[in-house]
Amino acid sequence: TGIVAVVVMLFVGYWLHSKSAVAKRKHFLSTLSTTSLFFVSFLTIFREGAETLLFYIGMAPAMTKTALLSGIGLAIIIIGLVSYAVIQIGVRLPIHRLFQVASWLIYLMAFKILGTSLHALQLTNVLPIHPINGLGTAGWIGFYPTLETLLPQIVLMILIALFTIWQKRRTAAIQTAA
What we know:
Blueprint: H1 2-22, H2 31-59, H3 65-92, H4 95-123, H5 147-177
């Protein structure tokens, strides 16, 4: 699921990045683009929700019900406050800037999910582990110093760079034509 989410995120991130220039001029949302955004959101939330559920299943026996429920309640409050802030700030931002930021956040999430998913496959002995010495682990960003996680993440970064360069050239060509 994580690897499928990364592929979808890559395309949705590219789509958002490509629309950041177009958003200044016209209304552009189509059924396909809305469906893509829904699909990437669903996969991301489903994956994170399943991971959280697994953590809760592992932690719940060692916690009191009060601690568990208060932690869940606090998380809901924090998510609500952050969501409210994002909505308020998002209304004031130019839509093209919002799309640029959203596309880079999606790329960052894709990097993390790719690394975490591949690392999970290594921990379950589906993929081999070939460590790279001298590099530290940064699990919060999905960076694990193995060939099996690092090489796909490098390919992902190259694809993102190519998409960005191609989009900048395309935007420049559109602006000179207009």
